[in-house]
Structures are given as structure tokens and as C-alpha cells.
């Protein structure tokens, strides 16, 4: 998805869930090709992490996670830690509490080179 479309769709949420995560990687080769095909329009999954976080989403930057097998496009699936994190997030019934989540995210991802921006 292109970044401008993401911004406009995000703005249409009247009551955006607090646990809105965007996983990205600056070295994603599939998104690089997608951007080329789209005439150079930036893709959300390869956008600047700080810019995305400023939109009010939680950004998990996987740029430094090594995954050459999938052209860096499926880093989230190649990492058991990330899969568990996503599963925990999907299974939570209550609202996402950033004060609770930060230590949990850091603990779950300690072995990886992952940046998390709120």
C-alpha cells in the first residue's frame, strides 16, 4: 500500500484501535519493486519509522533483522519471536496498554535487532 493511501485511510478511523501495529523493513526487496512499479510512490512497509509513528501507530522496525531467504519481505514470519508477539497481540481482548507493552515487547524481542516506536 502506498504511504499516502495509508494516511488517508488511517484518518478515516473514528475510533482507531490502540493496538494498531505497522511492521516495516527498509531493506524489503519486494516493496522496492512495488515502489518502482508504482512510479516511485513510497510503500508503507518501507517507510520512515519515525514518520509512521507520528501518525499514531506502533511501529516495529525489522530493518536490522537478517532474512535473506525471503528478500527481506517476510521477516515477521521467519522469526518465532515476532510470530509469538503477533499472536499475543491478536489474542488480547482488553485494550493495549503501552506502559505494559514496552517491557513485554522488549523482553520478547531482546535477541533481535528490532526498534519499536510508539
- Shape descriptor: globular
Secondary-structure class = mainly alpha
- Roughly how many Å apart are the termini? 21 Å
Strand neighbour order, sheet with most strands: 1-2-3
Order of helices and strands: HEHHEHHHE
Low-confidence stretches: none
The main pleated sheet reads as: 3 strands, mixed
Number of helices: 6
User: Considering DSSP H and I runs of 4 or more, what fraction of the residues is helical?
Assistant: 40-55%
Tell me the number of structural domains.
1
Query: How many β-strands, per DSSP?
Result: 3
Q: What's the rounded overall pLDDT mean? A: 76
Report Rg.
14 Å
**Strand proportion:** 5-15%
Key features?
6 helices, hydrolase, mainly alpha, single chain, three-stranded mixed beta sheet, globular, 118 residues, DUF900_hydrolase
Summary of the model, kept short:
With 118 residues, the chain is mainly alpha-helical.
Describe the protein in words.
The protein is mostly helical. The protein has helices spanning 3-11, 29-37, 49-53, 75-78, 80-91, 98-108, and strands at residues 21-24, 58-61, 115-117. The protein has one domain. Helix content is 42%, strand content 9%. The longest helix is centred in the last third of the chain and has 12 residues, at 80-91. This is Alpha/beta hydrolase. One of its GO terms (molecular function) is hydrolase activity. Pfam families: DUF900. Keywords: Hydrolase.
Amino acid at each position: 500500500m502506498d504511504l499516502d493511501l495509508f494516511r488517508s485511510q488511517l484518518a478515516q478511523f473514528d475510533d482507531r484501535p490502540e493496538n494498531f501495529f505497522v511492521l516495516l523493513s527498509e531493506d524489503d526487496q519486494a516493496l522496492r519493486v512495488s515502489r518502482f512499479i508504482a512510479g516511485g510512490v513510497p510503500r508503507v512497509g518501507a517507510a520512515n519509522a519515525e514518520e509512521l509513528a507520528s501518525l499514531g501507530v506502533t511501529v516495529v522496525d525489522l530493518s536490522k533483522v537478517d532474512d535473506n531467504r525471503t528478500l527481506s519481505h517476510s521477516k515477521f514470519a521467519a522469526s518465532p519471536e515476532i510470530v509469538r508477539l503477533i499472536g499475543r497481540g491478536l489474542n488480547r481482548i482488553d485494550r493495549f496498554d503501552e506502559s505494559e507493552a514496552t517491557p513485554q515487547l522488549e523482553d520478547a524481542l531482546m535477541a533481535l535487532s528490532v526498534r519499536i516506536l510508539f
